[in-house]
């Protein structure tokens, strides 16, 4: 069954081919972390989380559903009805024609499979049973704990749903993005964002949180951009299943989230910073207590954590957080960001240091 492919296209609302759309999304850094699923299939988390979407860590993704599969009537392929052909065979065939290119490198195996499975959700929701070509460009290093899956799946959800003819509300788009990667539901929105854990597909979504008087920056300290030894998905599963510290950490998240939201309302960065740092250390403690242990830290991770301590002791506000990788992100007041970055460059000259400001939510082009 050969597939007729149309020419590559990077333009959003193409009149000749309305089944193409391009979207961009930024990565986000969690202040109160998401770590552990209550439902693996729907990606419902064990606890609500809070994040800051950052500028400059972007995925820009084009999704193009091919015109049709040769040898099938439109109605059979797009609607899946009445031909007597086994729909599952057609769907499997359609899926096998999906393609994925990331930063000009064609992908196969796990990466393509994960995107294809996500596209299945879009195909099922939209009724458009066609294969898709996905082309993505990123300014986020992959798999190094810099939230690449958040920007990737937020952009993919927006582009794929639009290309499939769906017009989702921001909340429904966040629910869809969540199915690709949990943290992606937060990247649908800019600035501070809360992901309500909920208990099912309907009730688990993200929404923006008013930043009030806070003027935030995050200084990313790149310890290593090597691929992490254990994927966050696997590490999360292992922590939930084997870490004796995990239940206590989940419990602490609800308290931390309330306190963080209060601190935001009061414009109290010192309080927000302290909770952010404590929550991240709690998550890593729970990971390290897994069996076998999940240890993402490298010697330079500890060097950066100590440097941040020292910077704070010297009177500048700076607080650390870490995700599923060795890199450290430092929360600070935007007005102190340059001074904090300079102090970090002095104290850990071996690490790259980059200042990020709050970024916008998902955008269609
Ligand atoms: C440590 O969203 O990548 O960054 O839902 O399995 O795709 P999946 O996990 P993912 O996990 C992110 C975990 C984290 C903390 C956070 O962003 O809240």
UniProtKB/TrEMBL annotation:
What are the recorded GO MF terms, alphabetically?
ATP binding; diphosphomevalonate decarboxylase activity
Q: Which Pfam families match?
A: MDD_C, MVD-like_N
Instruction: State the UniProt keywords alphabetically.
Output: ATP-binding, Lipid biosynthesis, Lipid metabolism, Lyase, Nucleotide-binding
One GO cellular-component annotation of the UniProt record comes to: cytosol
Entry EC no(s): 4.1.1.33
Q: What processes does the entry annotate via GO biological process terms? A: isopentenyl diphosphate biosynthetic process, mevalonate pathway
User: What family does the database annotate?
Assistant: Belongs to the diphosphomevalonate decarboxylase family.
Q: What is this protein called?
A: diphosphomevalonate decarboxylase
What is the organism field in this record? Bifidobacterium bohemicum DSM 22767
